[in-house]
Automatic annotation (TrEMBL):
Keywords: FAD, Flavoprotein, Oxidoreductase. It comes from the Bacteria. InterPro entries: CO_DH_flav_C (IPR005107), CO_DH_flav_C_dom_sf (IPR036683), Diverse_Substr_Oxidored (IPR051312), FAD-bd_PCMH (IPR016166), FAD-bd_PCMH-like_sf (IPR036318), FAD-bd_PCMH_sub2 (IPR016169), Mopterin_DH_FAD-bd (IPR002346). Residues 1-157 form the FAD-binding PCMH-type domain. SMART domains: CO_deh_flav_C (SM01092). This is FAD-binding molybdopterin dehydrogenase.
Length: 265
């Protein structure tokens, strides 16, 4: 399925084909921003939105994204809502998109047109760059590139999927931690296929590849799922005030996997 880059978010969330085949996408869009913003926001704009780090927005404080080489005030400042994995000493900002998270779980591909008319594609997993020493370079796009659409491959046959968002208030709040999960269960409750992507924890949607490999073919308990999640987050570099996100992510994954397994026919 191809979704145009200029499609408004509210139309995407109401599309019958999206709701039926890619329910995690519809849920993520409805969990993001407000109804008024969703009527104006676009698919491409959602994926390319800038960080909501308060030090990026406050021009009186150092920020390597805004002014390269000036430093990252968040490391020693207010960082509760920022990233715990994929960060660097130069930047700990998290990516704010809800939509990008289920697109990562569905292995979406982003279609791009260059100024000379040439077209190319990039997997959603490779669209956003980790900060490293150049946090001001946020994507692999070049100046003048235009995101024309997002292509979703067919979902796994017989799988269930959802998006769940933990936030500080019910509406119009960015994720503390969010999860898009796609799960197909076989005989006896064995997991035949699983895809897990986290939001709110990294500078990009964070796919839990290692956890998926550990869980496929098993009948996991909640503790098994938590352990697999923590293995996938082993490279995390939390700061003092956001280390809780690791346990929260593990609990969220365990709860969602349990619920999806229980919902299988």
């Amino acid at each position: 399925m191809l979704i145009g880059g200029a499609v408004r978010n509210y139309r995407l969330a109401r599309d019958e084909g999206i709701c039926r085949r890619y329910p995690a996408v519809a849920r993520a869009v409805l969990a993001g921003a407000s109804g008024q913003i969703r009527t104006q926001a676009t698919v491409a704009g959602n994926l390319l939105q800038r960080t909501r780090c308060p030090y990026f927005q406050n021009t009186t404080t150092p920020c390597n994204k805004r002014e390269p080489g000036s430093g990252c005030a968040a490391v020693a400042g207010v960082h509760r809502d920022l990233a715990v994995i994929g960060t660097s000493d130069a930047c700990v900002a998290s990516h704010p998109s809800d939509l990008a998270v289920p697109l990562a779980a569905y292995d979406a591909v982003v279609e791009v047109r260059r100024p000379d008319g040439a077209e190319w594609t990039v997997p959603i997993h490779d669209l956003h760059r980790l900060p490293g020493d150049t946090p001001w370079i946020e994507t692999v796009l070049e100046p003048g590139d235009l995101v024309t659409g997002v292509r979703l491959p067919p979902p796994p046959a017989g799988a269930l999927a959802t998006y769940r968002k933990v936030r500080d208030r019910w509406s119009y709040a960015f994720a503390v931690v969010s999860l898009a999960a796609v799960l197909r269960v076989g005989a006896g409750g064995r997991i035949d296929e699983i895809r897990l992507a986290l939001g709110g924890v990294a500078p990009k949607p964070w796919r839990l590849w290692a956890a998926e490999r550990l869980l496929v073919g098993t009948r996991p308990s909640d503790d098994d799922v938590r352990a697999a999640t923590m293995t996938a987050l082993a490279d995390a570099r939390p700061l003092p005030d956001n280390a809780f996100k690791l346990d929260l992510a593990a609990d969220l994954v365990a709860a969602v996997v349990r619920d999806l397994r229980g919902a299988q026919p």
